[in-house]
Amino acid sequence: MSPSAFSEQRLPPWRRAVLKVGSSLLAANGGGLSTDHAQAIAGFVNACHAAGRQVVVVSSGAVAAGRAIMREQPHDGAEMAERQALAALGQARLIGFWQGLLDRQVAQVLLTHDDLRNRRRYLNARATLSALLRHRAVPVVNENDTVSVDELKLGDNDNLAAIVAALVDADVLFIATDIDGLYDADPRRNPDAQPVEVVSQMTPALMAAAGGSGSAVGTGGMRTKLEAAQRASAAGVSTVLFNGTRADVLADLARDALRGTRIHALRSRVAVRKHWLQNAPAEPGGIVIDEGAANALVEKGASLLPGGVITAEGDFRRGDMVEVLLRGEDGSERVARGVSQYSAADIRRIARRHSREIESVLGYSYGGTVIHRDDLMLV
């Protein structure tokens, strides 16, 4: 194994990460899945678990797995339905593949970009992933290729991984590639290409240097990885590109020694979150609270609980940005703003109730808070 052209650099401390693994690292020749590279990748994830860290895996490979099952292989240019059938056949095998390699229970999570663009579905996905991590499971996320035509055609799991990194408040996005990292030119075609070890800001020159796909199996190239890094950076998440075919690189990465490319985030996650909470437009109406709840929000940094809510005004829905109002003799005073976990109609029903009564009143529960403190900003 030839030495990496990249020198070793230390990664800053991190607690939660998203790891994206593409088809080129998992697919066997002729179809199916191979442990040739996956064994070392899983070893990295298991080492992270042993260190008390959390990892969400975004994994391609369902179509490759399906090829080993379907007797009659789709021809080149086959209808999308044929490729979607491969994805449907292979998805269960892909999850079983990861379960056999990882040291914790694996959970399948299938998403599309539409799921994450819709605010209510976004909140549901976030709550599910948070619960899985809390229960020490390993979410293995993939695009719902069986129904998402554009995503399957574009092979855009790199960008999906960046969205998931923002969704779960990850500290870092790891993208496993089949080359050592980012170069200033395509190293497969230009022997004088120089490694780019640190990227402080994405530039047009870097994007232009990114080539196409390096594999007949994977459909995403270095450019999609840089686009994903750019998206993650805007969300306050740094990105690491490394060679997932090298067991030594993965072993070093488990001890926070990177031989690859690190792409800095533009701003901290806290700053990005604060900016969004401050500037996102609020729905008409709001949540009216009592003085005790206002004091808890301002002085203790607490979440908003239903017991401190007087009523809800307007007709907003779960996932909407709303104002939190303290009603006084001279009118209403804005105390905070945040993302409501319940609709206005639901809040009017659970106002003044204890959190444990929510399910008995509504018949369901999205948790014991009306607005969680992570989704709330004082004004």
Automatic annotation (TrEMBL):
SMART domains named in the record: PUA (SM00359)
User: InterPro entries in the record, alphabetically?
Assistant: AceGlu_kinase-like_sf, Asp/Glu/Uridylate_kinase, G5K_ProB, Glu/AcGlu_kinase, Glu_5kinase, Glu_5kinase/COase_Synthase, Glutamate_5-kinase_CS, PUA
Q: Which UniProt keywords apply?
A: Amino-acid biosynthesis, ATP-binding, Cytoplasm, Kinase, Nucleotide-binding, Proline biosynthesis, Transferase
Reactions mediated catalytically:
L-glutamate + ATP = L-glutamyl 5-phosphate + ADP
Residues annotated to bind ATP? K20, T177, D178, T219, G220, G221, M222, R223, T224, K225
Per UniProt, what is one Pfam family of this protein? AA_kinase
Q: One MF term in GO for this entry?
A: glutamate 5-kinase activity
| Enzyme Commission number, as recorded | 2.7.2.11
Question: Could you tell me which residue ranges the PUA domain spans?
Answer: 285-371
Compartmental location: Cytoplasm
Q: Which Gene3D superfamilies match?
A: Acetylglutamate kinase-like, PUA domain
The domain of life is: Bacteria
Residue positions binding substrate: S60, D145, N157
The record's listing under CDD domains reads: AAK_G5K_ProB, PUA_G5K
Which HAMAP family does the protein's record reference? Answer: ProB (MF_00456)
In terms of NCBIfam families, this protein maps to: proB
Which PANTHER family does UniProt cross-reference here?
Answer: GLUTAMATE 5-KINASE (PTHR43654), ISOPENTENYL PHOSPHATE KINASE (PTHR43654:SF1)
Which family does the UniProt entry place this protein in? Belongs to the glutamate 5-kinase family.
Q: Which function does this protein serve?
A: Catalyzes the transfer of a phosphate group to glutamate to form L-glutamate 5-phosphate.
Q: What is this protein called?
A: Glutamate 5-kinase
Q: Which organism is it from?
A: Luteimonas composti
